[in-house]
Amino acid sequence: MLLCALASGSLATMCYASDRNALLAFKAQLIDTEGALNDWDAQTDCCIWTGVTCDNTHSRANSLNLWATSTNCVRNSSLIVDPKIDGSNFVASLSGLTALTQLSFANLQIRFRFSIPPAITLTNLVSLSLSGCQFSGPSIPAEVGNIVKLTDLSINGNQFPGGLPDSIGNLKNLNSLYLANNQMKSIGSRGSPC
What we know:
Low-confidence stretches: 1-12, 69-76
Number of domains: 1
CATH superfamily: Ribonuclease Inhibitor
Number of strands: 10
Helix content: 10-25%
CATH topology: Leucine-rich repeat, LRR (right-handed beta-alpha superhelix)
Structural class: alpha/beta
CATH class: Alpha Beta
Largest sheet: 6 strands, mixed
Strand order of the largest sheet: 2-3-5-6-7-8
Radius of gyration: 18 Å
Mean pLDDT: 76
Shape: globular
């Protein structure tokens, strides 16, 4: 009987409900003008959604890649954060993705009308790419320094004239840091010029 169930696929592994709910809450905050995320549907496995990758062992969403030039991503789309959404709500929707190790919005025409929200709670991230997302604000939030597992951080192509927080020094595993084209005037609290 078990063999028949396996053969029919009725025991197929589905993504965690909490991951699916977090991703759907994130999608609800976007205006998807070209239907790039149409396959993000509550009735389907989020592990096969555009831009989502899950680990093979636990079926947890471990990568959200909406990078405009990747092969496993949204292409030529225009995702816009709903103007009614503020930065803290935006991050709250992603905070349920506790197994997420990679988050990339690089070069996507996703227009953020706020700074990178300070309530960054994705502490398992190893790679964070927010390049070219039109984030703006006085400086990169100090809470970025709490994501201590980061090895790659790309936040170039935004607008952070205030520069880097001192907490960036907490990122002991950091191998690459991309900051170009941010209009930065200084680095750290001592105001070292760029």
